[in-house]
Batch of 2 targets.
Target 1
Amino acid sequence: MGLGFTEYRERDALRENCTAAKLVADMVSTSYGPAGMYKILLRDDGDFNVTKNVEMLSKDVASVHPVVRLLVETGKSVKSSTGDGFISTIILAGQLIGRAWKLIQEGIHPEVISRGYHIASRMASQTISRYSIAISHRDRHVLDAVVKTLLNTKLSHSLSDKLAPMLVEALLGTAQNFGDGVRVDGELVVIEGRRGGSLSDTELIDGVVLHKRGVDRLMPRRIENARIALVYGGFSIERPDMFTKVVLSKTFGISDFYRARQEFFDDVVEPILKLGVNVVICGENIDEMLRRLLARHNVLFVRNVSKENMKVIANAVGAVQVLNPRELSEEKLGRCKLVEERILAALDRWIFFEGCPNERVKSILVRGPTDKVVEEVKRVLRDCLKTVEVLLNSKAAAVPGGGAIEIRTAETLRNWAYSLGGKEQYAVLAFAEALEQLPAQLAKNVGVDHLDVLAELRRMNLDGFFGLDGLRGVIVNPFDSGILDPAFVKKECIAAATEVASLVIRVDHTFIFPFKSVKKSPIPEPVKAVRRTSQILKNIRMRRT
Ligand SMILES: Nc1ncnc2c1ncn2[C@@H]1O[C@H](COP(=O)(O)OP(=O)(O)OP(=O)(O)O)[C@@H](O)[C@H]1O
Ligand SMILES: [Mg+2]
């Protein structure tokens, strides 16, 4: 009698899960490092992305194999906490799972392997700490190198050269003394941008930029010593949702109607004029008549500004946001030296707020040939900003990149493993080999022989630090070449990959429950994926026999 579900047991379940882990690791690994490949993500509705930010896949993996989802979610969580390390986590997890499978076949219990992996992970983290160099916000040279290393895996070399110092300068501009140290605040760096111009037109602005224009063409374009009001709404007469009819029964009803409307306008405009406001930033729309009135009084009015932008402007100009103009008062107004509407490439109008009292607010205005390109650069800059913010505010240390730290850590693990008794030793040795696959992947992606590179890196790292230049495919000293990685990202990747690998190798059953529904429903994708992988495995086995 059946139990009402299908099951894959022990070896079958594990083999299947290892295959799924290998599939996802292989898929993302070709995008690893500066010579990594792009992926096209095409959706049903025709929308697409061309990107090296493979974590964007995570949005679309809801319907694939559970192990693929586990790995992708783990990489995503590393990326969301550190801003980096998505691909490294998945490659390493895939390697750890694959190597565990071999050890299991040799008769080592998954629990022992998991224990060995955890020991190795802790040892690796200590090794990384030992070889990392502390960074302070004054080390501009080192900071620029770290940011360039982060950027050049996603953007071109020349663009990374230009954007790295810009990003560092923006972030350092937000620095504030905090206790006995300095804290930077990534939220004060606004990354804006629209299609138009070329990527090299991207610029850093002291203050805020807004992709908006004055609501009326008669409004002023340049306002010095601006007095700024930030108002959510209240500039238009609310209309009822339903269709309504106004019936005027007396002849002077029309004049009453217009008088009431004029009174409303006066009521709105009066506080603005009385306080000498010359810029109004509003979260909603404005009545046609009112905008002409404000234009006549030389007030620049910007409508439909998002809540996020209102918050940034309020922060920069020192204003307090109010619900309607009647709540305005002198102390709620913001100020800045210059508010100007400028026309940039592609006849795009932008409003610049410069000379703001809060000098810590910075903006990076990204320009580029298409919206997709601009969005991609903005995404990369935001991730990088997060990494450098964490780096500067807490665990400020860098390690040599280009695979140097992985090779040195693997070497340390290997030497240390021999002092370990028990079968855990095999797991530690497997962990070391898995780590080395990261530089090996850099080599494969740049088109050089990874076995030669690994052998050479192992030999050279016995004495000093050497890594692979991921663009030229030659071995270099990463300190001299400015290839430096944040140490905390490496540690997070290793810890997360160890956790997910330990979880996957300790799964000994996959139960597939029938889909309970009165109507006949399609088989859910995760179930199909499990079946598909087992079919592939069956075919492979049949071919072998
Ligand atoms: N110019 C370079 N030469 C050699 N290696 C480099 C260079 N620039 C970066 N790297 C290496 O590339 C690796 C990071 O690659 P990548 O950014 O593609 O992966 P990730 O950080 O794991 O994933 P993601 O950035 O998508 O979250 C790091 O180990 C870093 O040392
Ligand atoms: Mg990266």
Note: The pocket of magnesium ion (ligand 2) is lined by residues 84, 150, 153 (CB under 6 Å).
Target 2
Amino acid sequence: MTKRALVPVFRGQGQIAYTEHEWPDPGPGQLLIRVRANAICGTDREQFLNGSEVVAGHEAAGEVAAAGQNTSTPVGTRGVIYFKEYCGSCRSCAAGHTSLCSQKRASTGMTTDGGYGPWELIAEQQFFAIPDDVPFDLATMLLDAMGTTGHAWKRALHERQDVRSVYIAGAGPIGLGLLLTGRLILPADIPIYVSDFSEWRRNLVAELGGHPLDAADEESIRAVGAVDLTFDSTGKKVARQLAIDLLGNHGVFMVVGGQEGFSFDDVGVELLPRELSILGSEYFDYNEFAGNLDRLQNNRDAVRKLLTHTYPVEQLDQAFATFLSGESGKVVVTQGGAD
Ligand SMILES: [Zn+2]
Ligand SMILES: [Zn+2]
């Protein structure tokens, strides 16, 4: 039966309007998901400020409410949603690189209704099942917080194996996620420096096992010396230039998160004398979920530290106010009751 509900839609400039949307029964190969939690992402800011036709939210966890023909996921299965509806057969998908699908059909939360509403109609291949004992709010950390950052780490460490020091520009959700994942991957004695303007976030950096640096104090950042691997999560020219300047020989610079892109016009880069590598990383491959779930299961307490705020969906405006205040890690919006 078609589902109807009043859903929050971003009208632009931070205005939230409630309008009625409907979700038909799942067709062949589709699942209807009852959303239970959705983590706020840095890219939501754009929809929140500029408006969105569809319900935003692309870091959702929930349970299968109905399943269409030609599916095998039982109703009631809990899981998280890979927001890109990939084709499964293009060259990238065939190689497992679903985040680079050239025939992408939809982006849940961007082109179809996402996780701030009660339902999501998705393709079955977007769903990743999780054990019943993983709470929905924690499960959303499998998406950008651990998925996107895990992919970036994988690409970076493929390029450079003997990493002895790391610098991350920006302690927003992606920067903090990079720190969390890095701390779970790297030996404890390898320093991970993280810069941010917000003192609140710098305190969280310390709690997550990083070395906080004040982004306003460039001298203190340069004093770190030659770094093997630097990430930019800010999208800002000045931050990127500094992150590249910090690199030592064979240094690797990684652009991750957001939709800012990267252009060589943005920064002056002399690649040859230090034999630098410049890499980009986009979301993650579906087949990385399983390893990230293991990482989550083995480190629940550490992952919980990143999830600083939870709000019921009725307080979506407060959730965004907290997120935009700069005094948060990951903010998760829940609905449909506890856990
Ligand atoms: Zn995101
Ligand atoms: Zn594809």
Note: The chain has two domains: 3-145+285-334, 149-281.
